[in-house]
Write a structure and sequence with these properties.
alpha/beta; SH3 type barrels; Rossmann fold; six-stranded parallel beta sheet; 34 helices; 18% strand; binds adenosine-5'-triphosphate; RNA polymerase-associated protein RapA; Helicase_C-like; helicase
């Protein structure tokens, strides 16, 4: 329709501002036309000659809606004095409805409707839309999904665990890698995966006070996960926002509607100490409910059959309020086997319900491991006894397992699942991972001053300075002068000094700083979080920073100081796991040098006893010693006597310790540890996963895609350096389409290695929020849904019309079902002409992109109404051609759903017969998921996602 045919009462849309909705012509005077836009409550006047308006004419079969919200189907259209009268069907009667009565809001969701309404885009936008659908499709089906976006090195043991755990529904596991192997990273990967794939939305991280900031920073810089800290101050602030009326209502009617600060954000980080202290906060944290909870340094959760610690009780209660639970500790048995058992019970109460049974089970591990080894080495020659043992463990499931293609691996998997802690416990050791630097113990025996004559032995003797005035021990304890000299000698090397108590750390730091002129900082639990972070940053600063950081035991737990290579143990802890925690501050991933462990100890005191016990008995300085606590329990009497000063006990103690250490290590090596190791990192699977991730990173060309998007969305790109660019909103910037792009720009790198070195640059992977945000905006907005292009080729006569159509599978289903894994976007592209010929193969998308050019908007506006009937015919043809594909897509999806759920359900059912490790809830959940996935797939349909109408010339 020509724009000169404006008549009052007609309905038009503005294609330059689609948000205005359906306009109504209210005035025509001279060469100007005025429209009211009721949906936007606005009026606009245009020059008639070049008004950016398109006439809206609904066709037979389309749905219309009136101002009153009544809906009709159009049966016929007639024009009365230039204004349309729709013959509208309400399901019972057909009645005339004038277009004047139509509602002001329009939503042209179908691409051809957008085209007819003049809401079409340039070719590039259509290309972007198609590319977005294709990338989404590939990514959703990729095993690398959820693991691509982390700014981490690809370490097999971490990725293996993350992949194993993160795919589960509501995973509940103990991550128990040795100190510094990256449990935080593993937890981050799992969180990232679960959040990216919609398996989790609300997550809570609970850590000791001292680690709040480290976790906050680590989650943000490595995973782009923005956690909000809820501490006492924020909690009070949020509570105070509750207005007086709310407060009064809550007071009268109970607390139900009260503001819950834990509900203010989806990702919350808070300290365990805070929850233990505040009953109100605790209640709110329980009430908020979580999909996934992470508890770091979980060895502090002490439990015994007689009594649970307050920390344990808080986490126990919280663990009931959370679907998933990740407990992190490097030293799971630090405070004894009972507490270890109790933590496993938090993860799976049905499986770990009896401490005694748990103890007995551990005895079996060695036998199981022997059979597993024989299975791995030569499955064909398995003895009748082994076969019998297997039948005993696996029952009537064994024949089925042995009948599989990968029979022996299946049997091993089944054994690990059904017996032992296979499903809930993951532990990697330095020995299994390798490549860690050497640890060199450097003992410094020093004479014991008379000052400590009464404090030489017993536990007091380990930190005798506690019982004398500060001034005196600082002056007379030879460890102080030795430390001062050592630091001066090592300057400028960074040195971490750890001692048991905060008071010792404070006094030492004061002394070194003020009296010895050594740049140092103290780091302990009495500092506020900000002070602690400031101290750590001061120490980390390589140019102006402190040379020494004087830490207390608790203050330094979990911290990353691998940039330092010298550790001074100002005293020695009683517990071997605490020693490992201390050395672990430096002995971490990222440590590049040998670690020098300086051990000043006072001769003829319990410090000497402890030094020799660690060194000669446990060899705990040079190597990580996982059995230390168990050995200590075994030799406890001797150890106590030696510590109390009975010199005659020293040699027998060392000998007994060495023997027990060797025995336990051997036993664990053959038993429990071997089983856990088998489960914690399967190298082949890990390598395949890394290959998948790297293929996705290298081949898919996230940068190419984003350049295409930036061009359309008005983001300017400046070259920064190799692999790096600066992104800035340009003049044509489409606000709202690119989330998280700061006004003053963002420096980004596309390269993982560079991202690891340059933390100031954002790491643009397929899973960076800018990239996922653009993909979501493109698919959810109308961008590129309809385009008009010109094609000039000799083979086709001028004036020929073609339609390039892209369909995608739509399947309304709850996001937690994760149906996209089985039924990815599956974009289906077709090219048809007016006669319904399928030209999809003859005219591939890339070729058309090269050959097609844009048509000027005004020309296009004029063309569209003239080709409407042909376009509709071609859309019909395309839909007809697309239709048969739906059945096969659906079938394939159903097969995949069965493949995904079926074996897992069968496995869990079999498992439950021999082992209660499987929660009923888990099996029922999977069954429900399978049923609901099946029924959702019944409703899958192919929706037209975009069209490009091509006119030849
Ligand atoms: N894949 C990785 N890429 C880069 N850095 C890593 C990776 N894994 C771990 N690191 C770094 O190694 C150090 C140790 O990691 P992390 O803090 O996760 O270990 P942890 O096992 O939780 O330690 P702890 O037992 O002390 O709590 C950290 O500085 C971490 O940033």
């Amino acid at each position: 329709m020509e724009t000169s045919e404006f008549v009052i009462g007609q309905r038009w849309v503005s294609h330059s501002d689609t948000a205005l909705g359906l306009g109504i012509v209210t005035d025509i005077s001279g060469r100007r036309v005025t429209l009211g836009f009721p949906a936007a409550d606005e009026e606009r006047t245009y020059a008639i000659d070049n008004a950016p308006l398109s006439r809206i004419v609904y066709q037979q079969g389309e749905e219309i809606e009136t101002f009153e919200g009544e809906r009709y189907t159009v049966r016929a259209v007639e024009t009365i004095d230039g204004v349309l009268m729709y013959h509208a069907d309400d399901g019972e009667n057909i009645q005339p409805i004038s277009e004047v009565k139509l509602a002001g809001s329009v939503n042209f969701s179908a691409p051809h409707q957008r085209l007819f309404a003049g809401q079409f885009d340039r070719n590039g936008a259509f290309r972007l839309r198609v590319a977005t659908l294709q990338h989404m499709d590939r990514l959703r089906a990729s095993p690398a999904q959820g693991l691509i976006g982390a700014r981490t090195q690809h370490l097999p043991h971490q990725l293996y665990i993350a992949h194993e755990v993160a795919r589960r529904h509501a995973p509940r596991v103990l991550l128990a890698d040795e100190v510094g192997l990256g449990k935080t990273i593993e937890a981050g990967l799992i969180l990232h995966y679960q959040l990216q794939t919609g398996r989790a939305r609300r997550a809570l991280i609970v850590v000791p006070d001292s680690l709040i900031h480290q976790w906050l920073v680590e989650m943000l810089r490595r995973f782009n996960l923005r956690f909000s800290i809820v501490d006492q101050a924020r909690y009070d602030d949020l509570k105070a926002e509750e207005d007086d009326v709310d407060a009064l209502m809550n007071h009268i009617f109970g607390d139900d509607d009260a503001v819950n600060p834990f509900e203010a954000d989806q990702l919350v980080l808070c300290s365990l100490d805070f929850l233990v202290r505040s009953e109100k906060a605790r209640k709110d944290a329980f009430a908020a409910g979580w999909d996934l909870m992470v508890v770091d340094e979980a060895h502090h959760l002490a439990w015994s059959p007689e009594q649970a610690s307050p920390e344990y009780e808080v986490v126990e209660r919280l663990s009931e309020a959370s679907q998933g639970l990740l407990l992190l500790t490097a030293t799971p048995e630090q405070i004894g086997l009972a507490s270890h058992f109790a933590r496993l019970r938090l993860l799976d109460p049905a499986r770990f319900h009896d401490l005694e049974a748990f103890r007995q089970e551990e005895q079996q591990y060695e036998v199981i491991n022997q059979v597993v080894r024989r299975l791995q080495q030569s499955p064909e020659t398995l003895s009748p006894e082994d076969q019998e043992a297997l039948a005993g463990w696996l029952g009537d499931e064994l024949p089925e397992l042995l009948g599989r293609d990968d029979a022996y691996q299946s049997v091993i998997d089944a054994l690990l699942d059904r017996h032992g802690t296979g499903r809930v416990l993951f532990r990697n050791t330095r020995a299994a991972i390798q490549g860690f630097p050497e640890r060199q113990p450097l003992p410094e025996p020093l004479p014991c001053p008379a000052l400590y004559d009464t404090e030489r032995y017993g536990l007091e003797g380990l930190a005798p300075e506690q019982s004398v005035p500060e001034e005196r021990w600082l002056a007379e304890d030879p460890r102080v002068a030795w430390l001062e000299k050592k630091l001066a000698g090592l300057r400028p090397a960074k040195v971490v000094v750890i001692c048991a108590r905060a008071s010792t750390a404070m006094a030492l730091e004061h002394y070194l700083q003020l009296r010895a002129g050594i740049r140092s900082a103290a780091f302990h639990e009495h500092l506020s979080l900000i002070e602690r972070d400031r101290a750590a940053a001061y120490f980390a600063d390589s140019e102006q920073g402190a040379q020494a950081l004087i830490c207390s035991e608790i203050g330094s737990e979990g911290r990353n100081f691998q940039f330092a290579h010298h550790l001074v143990l100002f005293d020695l802890p009683a517990n071997p796991d605490l020693l490992e925690q201390r050395i672990g501050r430096l002995d971490r991933i990222g440590q590049t040098d040998a670690i020098r462990i300086h051990i000043p100890y006072l001769q003829g005191t319990s410090q000497e006893v402890q030094y020799r016990w660690f060194q000669e008995g446990l060899n705990a300085f040079a190597e990580s010693c996982a059995v230390g606590v168990a050995v200590q329990e075994h030799v406890h009497g001797e150890w106590q006597l030696a510590l109390d000063g009975d010199g005659s006990r020293m040699e027998p103690l060392v000998a007994a310790t060495a023997a027990e250490t060797a025995r336990l290590k051997e036993m664990l090596h053959n038993g429990r540890d071997a089983l856990i190791e088998l489960n914690s990192c399967r190298t082949e699977e890990a390598s395949a996963l890394i290959a998948d991730i790297e293929a996705e990173e290298n081949a898919a060309g996230v940068r190419d895609y984003m350049l295409q998007a930036f061009d359309i969305l008005g983001v300017d790109l400046e070259d920064h350096s190799e692999h790096a660019d600066i992104l800035k909103p340009g003049e044509q910037f489409q606000t709202g389409m690119v989330a998280e792009l700061p006004e003053d720009g963002l420096t980004v790198t596309w390269d993982r290695q560079q991202a690891l070195q340059r933390e100031d640059m954002a790491f643009m992977s397929w899973e960076h929020p800018v990239v996922t945000g653009v993909m979501d905006s493109v698919t959810s907005a109308g961008l590129g849904k309809a385009a008009l292009a010109n094609l000039s080729v000799k083979a086709l006569p001028p004036g020929t019309l073609l339609l390039e159509a892209v369909f995608a599978v739509h399947c309304p289903a709850p996001e937690t079902l994760q149906l996209t894994r089985y039924l990815p976007v599956s974009p289906l592209r077709l090219v048809v002409d007016v006669n319904g010929r399928d030209l999809s193969k003859a005219l591939p998308h890339d070729r058309l992109n090269e050959l097609c050019s844009n048509i000027r908007r005004r020309t296009a506006q004029a063309i569209v109404p003239k080709i409407r009937a042909e376009v509709e015919t071609m859309v019909d043809h395309a839909e007809r051609l697309a239709d048969p594909h739906l059945a096969s897509l659906r079938e394939r999806a159903l097969d995949r759903v069965e493949e995904g759920f079926g074996p897992e359900i069968r496995r869990l059912e079999a498992l439950r017969k021999v082992n209660p490790a499987i929660r009923d809830q888990e099996v029922d959940f999977l069954r429900d998921q399978l049923a609901s996935a099946r029924s959702s797939l019944e409703h899958a349909s192919l929706a037209l996602e975009g069209i490009r109408v091509i006119v030849t010339s």
